[in-house]
Specification:
single chain, 616 residues, alpha/beta, Anaerobic Ribonucleotide-triphosphate Reductase Large Chain, 10-stranded mixed beta sheet, 3-stranded antiparallel beta sheet, 22 helices, 20 strands, 14% strand
Length: 616
């Protein structure tokens, strides 16, 4: 065993499942040149927490105090009550040193700026981070280039460069490269953007979302008959989109130029796309492939904590962390299953223990900012000036299982709102305590925390809900606030290997009740549900519902419940059965807007050939 230049684990080793060990060995633990692991999980957690504890020295902690914080942080993560995002686990106390998962980079309208962003993307993704981009500023296809006298090939062609960069970097990276591409619905190339991922082999490392304003959404909800007006970001010239144009090949010169505020008379207007037509296009594309998602950009900016620094135009790859250009954020998630207690057979939450964990997790994430090595110099200033963190949850569905509460029930939604409200308020209290000790974040004076909320906090944004795909495997719990995909299923991981996952709570209850068997396991893995398996008692079927057992409106209600108590946003996929219609997707998107969600992503089962989670 090689020696590491870090303190040895200050406490007991973590208790991990076989699947957790498989993930850690394949992607997280240090390996030698022969690709053999030379680090234990306990050493990995010590490597992480010793580095985070070193940040305390900046605020006056002495050697013994730093050792004390090392032990407290170590006990926190080894207990699996809280885990930070994957880059922190992978890179802490290593040459790379990048601990943040989320970045947003600007894409300005020049060749120099575009390829500078490409370079920055490569550096971030090599280190294991994810990147978000807004394509709004890029001039439309066919627009004039003054320096050469030619015309531009448009945003989609440059977007492809970012995608190819991610593919190239991914080969040597710890984790799959992830991006978010966003475009306003008012960009002239919006039709190209909406259809770009209908080819499932294109832009496979990008999620995409169309940005929709409140005014535009109100037009959709009113009648959808208003003409859809787009605007050239270079000239601000307004255009209509003729129905006759070829989506793949049209240019700005094929559009109908508007002069003044006049629009064509009604007899001519039918030749052009309406907002309702564009909305239908969004819905149909999402129904077919799950792309694009929708971002309600005005709603996001109403919660922008630092509006004096500019509007938020993009998010991280999964949509839960809206960020300014050149801003980064480190995420961490609390495993809710660890706070369910049983007294005389009755389950309840240990609220004091949860509050204590929230407080320690906020300090952990704030310290992370000070010891993170940001690969792009421009992100350092803004990230440290706003000090955004993203504290969220995982294991929510498993928590409901333990409490005996159905996900698709009013009780379930109310519990979701209660628990996120509790976490949000305690996280804010913790951030205020840190602000009193260390000072508020440097941009606080001009932020809404001072001007509107009159509250000192250490962090401009404190809470969000991330998808927690891999760290939930390490913690052996369900992902984020998603319902269980299935109680038994196969998960594909980056190396191409597969792992069988069996929900431990269901298995324990089924074994105790005497109806668990390998045959039952195979039935569940094949069906993805226990709802039609008669040997499972009805009271258990009522609670143990999975993703496709739950109607989309309950998914959305749950997302909205958590969103009420999140500074940032919520990563959530709204699951649809294979036979769901575009009308059902239309209804879901509108409901998400009406309930106050900041965005929505849907997925209709089997709308893509390759899925990360599958049945037998």
């Amino acid at each position: 065993m090689a020696e590491f230049d870090i303190p040895p684990p200050p406490g007991p080793a973590p208790v991990l499942t076989k699947n957790a060990l498989t993930i850690l060995q394949s992607r997280y633990l240090i390996k030698d040149r022969q690709d053999k692991c030379i680090e234990t999980p306990a050493q990995m957690f010590s490597r992480l927490t010793s580095l985070i504890a070193e940040a305390e020295a900046k605020y006056g902690a002495q050697t013994d105090e730093i050792k004390g914080w090392h032990r407290r942080f170590y006990d926190l993560v080894v207990s699996l009550k809280f885990l930070p995002n994957s880059p922190a686990l992978m890179n802490a106390n290593r040459p790379n040193g990048m601990l943040s998962a989320c970045f947003v980079l600007p894409v300005e309208d020049s060749i120099e700026a575009i390829f500078e962003a490409v370079k920055q993307t490569a550096l971030i993704q090599k280190a294991g981070g994810g990147t978000g981009f807004c394509l709004d500023k890029l001039r439309p296809t066919g627009d004039r280039i003054a320096s050469s006298g030619g015309t531009t090939s448009g945003p989609i062609s440059f977007w492809r460069v970012f995608s190819e960069t991610t593919d190239a970097i991914q080969q040597g990276a710890f984790r799959r490269g992830a991006n978010m591409g966003m475009m306003t619905v008012e960009h002239p190339d919006i039709l190209k953007f909406l259809h770009a991922k209908q080819n499932l082999k294109a832009f496979t490392n990008f999620n995409i979302s169309v940005k929709i304003t409140d005014d535009w959404m109100r037009q959709v909800l009113k009648s959808g008959r208003a003409l859809h007006i787009v605007k050239n970001p270079r000239t601000q010239q307004r255009f209509l989109l003729p129905r006759r144009i070829n989506i793949a090949t049209y240019t700005i010169n094929d559009l109908h130029k508007l002069t003044g505020k006049k629009v064509p008379p009604s007899r001519v207007a039918r030749q052009f796309y309406t907002v309702g037509d564009i909305w239908k296009m969004v819905v149909n594309c999402a129904h077919k492939t799950g792309e694009p998602g929708v971002i309600f950009i005005d709603r996001i900016n109403r919660d922008n904590p630092t509006p004096s620094l500019g509007r938020i135009e993009a998010t991280n790859p999964c949509g839960e962390q809206p960020l300014l250009a050149f801003e980064a954020c480190t995420l961490g998630s609390i495993n809710l299953t660890k706070f369910v207690t049983f007294t005389d057979g009755k389950a309840d939450m240990n609220w004091p223990a949860l509050a204590a964990t929230v407080k320690l997790a906020v300090r952990f994430l704030d310290d992370t900012i000070d010891v993170c090595n940001y690969p792009v110099r421009d992100t350092v200033r803004l990230t440290q000036a706003n000090r955004k963190i993203g504290l969220g949850v995982m294991g929510f569905a498993d928590c409901l299982f333990l409490l005996g509460i159905p996900y698709d029930s009013q009780q379930g939604v109310e519990f979701g709102e209660t628990i996120m409200g509790f976490i949000n308020e305690n996280a804010r209290k913790a951030s205020t305590e840190l602000a009193n000790l260390r000072g508020p974040f440097p941009n606080w004076n001009e932020s809404i925390w001072r001007t509107e909320r009159n509250r000192k906090v250490r962090n401009a944004a404190i809470t969000c809900v991330a998808p927690t795909g891999t760290i939930s495997i390490i913690a052996d719990c369900s992902c984020g606030i998603e319902p269980a995909f299935s109680l038994v299923f196969v998960r594909r991981i980056l190396s191409g290997s597969k792992m069988l996952q069996i929900n431990p709570i269901f298995k324990q209850i089924a074994e105790k009740a005497g109806f668990y068997s390998k045959d039952l396991e195979k039935q569940i893995a094949k069906a993805g549900s226990i709802q039609k398996i008669s040997q499972v008692p009805a009271k258990i079927r009522k609670v143990f519902k999975c993703a496709y057992d739950i109607k989309p409106e309950w998914h959305i209600k749950m997302q909205a419940a958590f969103q009420q108590h999140c500074d940032a946003a919520v990563s959530k996929t709204i699951n649809f059965r294979e036979k769901a219609t575009p009308a059902a997707v239309d209804k879901a998107y509108k409901l998400a807007y009406q309930l106050g969600c900041k965005g929505i992503t849907i997925y209709r089962r089997h709308s893509r050939r390759r899925e990360p989670m599958s049945l037998y």
